[in-house]
Design goal:
It is built from 10 helices and no strands. It is mostly helical. Helix 2 (about 35-75) runs parallel beside helix 7 (about 230-240) and helix 4 runs antiparallel to helix 5 (about 180-205). The protein is extended and about 95 Å long.
Length: about 280
């Protein structure tokens, strides 16, 4: 087989692969913001949340086991050494029991109520983030002229002192004086109220979960459910990274739909290079 025939064969294979990738990508890209993609994210979101909450539940079980072991050792007349040994044994056994999979088996759990509460809480957190962003932008705009004047004054002082002025130095508004607006405080209270509903649903799944544990988990839960600039890809990657979620083929394809399109275009370019290689070399 001649070199030209080999190149043409490779070009055909690349063209077929390009067409396959592009068709698959274009079909699945709309699903990222459609019902299929959002359902995948919703399932992953709940699994990640339950996994993160389960870590705190383990600590609750450990605390209960240690208290019970201590009480039992005292009741049996054991000394300090016996009590300490019983407590350490209870902690070790409890951690082994729950950290080795008992809390990670989430199959069969009814998450209908939790999913609904999470959706409401996520929207409340988004609303607060939007109000905060608007308030910060307004503060920056109101103090921009002041910051610009301060920077000009600084540059004048540097010139007088014979110092070189950085070319890429930008005007930066000092945000230390920024305070939460009444609207921000209102949205924050709404978010806290909806988080209480999430906590109530988590307690139904993990009865030993305490209010104190839920309070410490609030920042973690918020970070799981919403981050500024979230897209399908950022959420999908975050959930895969933060928990031991088993990805589905459908989820992977939807997540990498845009990558498939880019790969298709790259293969098309390669096809053209292979077909017109002799002309390009000449």
């Amino acid at each position: 087989m001649t070199k030209n025939k080999i190149q043409r064969l490779l070009a055909i294979l690349c063209a077929v692969a390009a067409a396959f990738c592009m068709v698959l990508g274009f079909i699945n890209m709309p699903k990222q913001n459609g019902a299929a993609g959002q359902e995948i994210l919703r399932t992953m979101r709940i699994q990640t949340l339950l996994s993160a909450t389960g870590d705190s539940v383990v600590e609750s079980y450990v605390a209960i086991a240690k208290q019970e072991a201590q009480a039992a050792a005292k009741a049996s007349g054991g000394g300090m050494a016996a009590i300490r040994e019983a407590v350490e044994k209870a902690e070790t056994e409890t951690r082994e029991k729950y950290e080795n999979g008992a809390q990670n088996d989430l199959s069969g759990i009814d998450t209908t109520g939790l999913s609904a509460a999470v959706d409401v809480y996520t929207e409340a957190v988004k609303a607060y983030a939007e109000v905060e962003a608007q308030a910060r932008a307004a503060y920056e705009e109101a103090h921009y002229a002041e910051a610009e004047a301060a920077l000009e004054k600084k540059h004048e002082e540097m010139l007088a002192a014979g110092e070189e002025i950085p070319e890429d130095e930008e005007v930066v508004v000092d945000m230390s004086g920024f305070e939460a607006t009444p609207e921000m405080l209102e949205k924050q209270e709404e978010a806290k109220a909806t988080y209480a509903n999430v906590g109530a649903e988590l307690k139904k799944i993990y009865p030993v979960l305490t209010d104190e544990a839920l309070e410490t988990l609030e920042a973690t839960v918020e970070g799981i459910l919403y981050q500024s600039g979230d897209s399908f890809a950022t959420q999908y990657d975050r959930y895969v990274e933060q928990s031991n979620i088993k990805e589905t083929n459908e989820g992977r394809i939807i997540r990498h739909a845009d990558d498939l399109v880019y790969l298709g275009f790259a293969l098309l370019v390669l096809t053209v290079l292979l077909l017109f290689n002799s002309w390009l070399v000449a």
